[in-house]
């Protein structure tokens, strides 16, 4: 019997509804169920690491992950240029100090995957402060690195010093015992690589930490500097005393090798570095026996303050694979892939539950513990901020300007950078 006109219309509507339902549940609009390629740009981690940690994901989804390692020295500008031309990656490494400068370039995570509250619960608190804004999550790390004290146990033994310093006051007391000078008073072996900017690795991070330990937030919620009136001058004076010729704690100057290189060569007893620096030190001196201790704190401190520097994974706002990209990041930050990443890179993990298991590690345990007490601050342009800090430290160390003048100049320049931001 032939269908009536009404029956034909009803059948057509049903068929159309079925087709729409299939498309919706298959996630056609977000590439789910379709094999796709995600391009990831990163620094410091090589291709073999990413091949290992993404193997299971690629097998289960059929998606391809193309990881491209970039030169850290040119990475930011190359990334900016690629995004500007529409040829950027889907996912890229995003520095923990970049959110103020680059948040317009990245797409926040779907709330079904990450919320500000879930990040605060599952990661050290510094991650939520660095990568969330207005309840949006903009990046998620695989590792959280912190600044620590590296020391040469042989040199401490020669000076009859039983343990590395726990406080800055203890460190100052050790300087005369560890410093070696010739008959003219010139330093032959330094006690600590600290005091200048241009030849001290992470000098700006070190000064930032000293400011924070002195009570400064460095910038407030309105992105105005606060360290002129709180913590800045005392931190600058403390740091540069080790490079001032007329100081009783003089032990370091600008003629010396870069601090971590000097440390690896046995030219200095104490230095400051990140877990990511360990490989460099071993490349300079493969058989050098050094140890790592927690970052010194003020003797009067009632709570630890440490300093974080690390990378997160972010999704480009230009990517047409936004959902798939964030799904991938969600998978990579699960416990097993995060553990595998930490193992392959010899770095501390990022998730609280994994950091808990790493605290007794003889190398990474210090960094795992410090992640919980780590701080950082939003920077208008990290590269320019670093130069401002380094130049000011060198000027104060050489007595060209006072500590107060150095701090005031730094604040003025940083405030100007914040004010220029679009």
From TrEMBL:
<comment type="similarity">
    <text>Belongs to the bacterial solute-binding protein 1 family.</text>
</comment>
<keyword id="KW-0813">Transport</keyword>
<keyword id="KW-0472">Membrane</keyword>
<keyword id="KW-0732">Signal</keyword>
<dbReference type="GO" id="GO:0015768">
    <property type="term" value="P:maltose transport"/>
</dbReference>
<dbReference type="InterPro" id="IPR006059">
    <property type="entry name" value="SBP"/>
</dbReference>
<keyword id="KW-1133">Transmembrane helix</keyword>
<protein>
    <recommendedName>
        <fullName>ABC transporter substrate-binding protein</fullName>
    </recommendedName>
</protein>
<dbReference type="Pfam" id="PF01547">
    <property type="entry name" value="SBP_bac_1"/>
</dbReference>
<keyword id="KW-0812">Transmembrane</keyword>
<dbReference type="GO" id="GO:1901982">
    <property type="term" value="F:maltose binding"/>
</dbReference>
<dbReference type="GO" id="GO:0055052">
    <property type="term" value="C:ATP-binding cassette (ABC) transporter complex, substrate-binding subunit-containing"/>
</dbReference>
<feature type="transmembrane region" description="Helical">
    <location>
        <begin position="6"/>
        <end position="25"/>
    </location>
</feature>
<dbReference type="GO" id="GO:0042956">
    <property type="term" value="P:maltodextrin transmembrane transport"/>
</dbReference>
């Amino acid at each position: 019997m032939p269908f009536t006109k009404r029956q034909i219309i009803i059948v057509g509507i049903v068929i159309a509804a079925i087709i729409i339902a299939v498309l919706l549940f298959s996630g056609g609009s977000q590439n789910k169920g379709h094999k796709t390629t995600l391009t990831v740009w990163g620094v410091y981690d090589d291709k073999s690491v990413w091949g290992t940690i993404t193997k299971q994901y690629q097998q289960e989804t059929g998606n391809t992950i193309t990881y491209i390692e970039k030169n850290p020295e040119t990475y930011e500008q190359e990334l900016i240029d690629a995004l500007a031309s529409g040829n950027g990656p889907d996912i890229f490494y995003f520095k923990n100090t970049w959110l103020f400068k680059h948040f317009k370039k990245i797409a926040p995570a779907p709330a079904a995957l990450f919320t500000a509250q879930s990040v605060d619960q599952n990661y050290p608190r510094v991650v939520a402060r660095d990568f969330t804004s207005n309840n949006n999550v903009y990046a998620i790390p695989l590792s959280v690195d912190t600044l620590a004290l590296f020391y040469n146990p042989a040199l401490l033994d020669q000076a009859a010093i039983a343990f590395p310093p726990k406080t800055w006051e203890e460190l100052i007391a050790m300087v005369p015992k560890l410093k070696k000078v010739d008959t003219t008073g010139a330093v032959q072996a330094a006690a600590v690589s600290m005091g200048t900017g241009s030849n001290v690795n992470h000098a700006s991070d070190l000064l930032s930490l000293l400011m924070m330990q002195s009570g400064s937030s460095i910038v407030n919620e309105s992105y105005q500097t606060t360290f002129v009136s709180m913590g800045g001058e005392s931190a600058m004076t403390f740091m540069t005393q080790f490079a001032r010729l007329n100081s009783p704690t003089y032990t370091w100057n600008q003629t010396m090798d870069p601090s971590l290189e000097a440390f690896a060569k046995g030219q200095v007893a104490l230095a400051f570095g990140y877990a990511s620096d360990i490989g460099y030190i071993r490349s300079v001196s493969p058989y050098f026996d050094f140890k790592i201790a927690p970052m010194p704190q003020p003797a009067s401190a009632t709570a630890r303050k440490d300093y974080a520097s690390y990378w997160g994974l972010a999704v480009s706002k230009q990517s047409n694979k936004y959902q798939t990209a964030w799904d991938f990041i969600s998978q990579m930050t699960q416990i097993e892939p995060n553990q595998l990443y930490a193992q392959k890179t010899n770095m501390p993990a990022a998730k609280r539950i994994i950091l808990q298991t790493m605290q007794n590690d003889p190398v990474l345990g210090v960094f795992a513990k410090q992640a919980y007490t780590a701080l950082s601050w939003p920077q208008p342009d990290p590269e320019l901020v670093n130069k401002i800090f380094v130049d000011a430290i060198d000027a104060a160390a050489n007595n060209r300007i006072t500590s107060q003048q150095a701090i005031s100049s730094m604040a003025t320049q940083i405030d100007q950078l914040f004010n220029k931001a679009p």
